[in-house]
Design brief:
This protein has a four-stranded mixed β-sheet. It has helices spanning 4-21, 72-88, 106-117, and strands at residues 28-33, 38-44, 49-55, 95-97. The termini are far apart. Helix 2 packs parallel to helix 3 (106-117). 39% of the residues lie in helices and 19% in strands. It is built from three helices and four strands.
């Protein structure tokens, strides 16, 4: 029997393969959700460099949300922050890498916040 972690790994690999195989040569916005925090990075795979990164654990995000660092409100604020950092770094178009998670809830809130900040995907 295949464990939950292995199923997640299969989904994550499938999503990443489809993004990289599509032939789009733009940076990807990768989102990771742990049990406590959310992390987002804009990664340039051609040069293997991280162009911008943000997390709900950082000092910039402290005190911005009422409930916790894993709420949907915090996810939206994280999306806006990563969008602002990416635009400052000169990136306007990205591919969204949801990392094997379903596109709803916190993952969708990060994407909506990034779009609000000016990223296109």
């Amino acid at each position: 029997m295949v464990s939950k972690q292995k199923k997640y790994g299969f989904r994550k690999a499938r999503v990443r393969k489809n993004i990289l195989a599509s032939g789009i040569k733009c940076p990807r916005l990768s989102v990771y959700r742990s049990l406590r925090y959310l992390y987002a990075q804009v990664i340039d795979d051609a040069n293997s460099k991280t162009l911008a990164s943000a997390t709900t654990l950082s000092k910039e995000m402290q005190g911005k949300f009422e409930k916790s660092a894993k709420s949907i409100e915090a996810a939206g604020a994280l999306g806006e922050l990563i969008g602002q950092k990416a635009v400052k770094a000169g990136v306007t178009k990205v591919c969204f890498d949801r990392g094997g998670r379903l596109y709803h809830g916190k993952i969708k809130a990060v994407a909506d916040g990034a779009r609000k900040a000016g990223l296109k995907f």
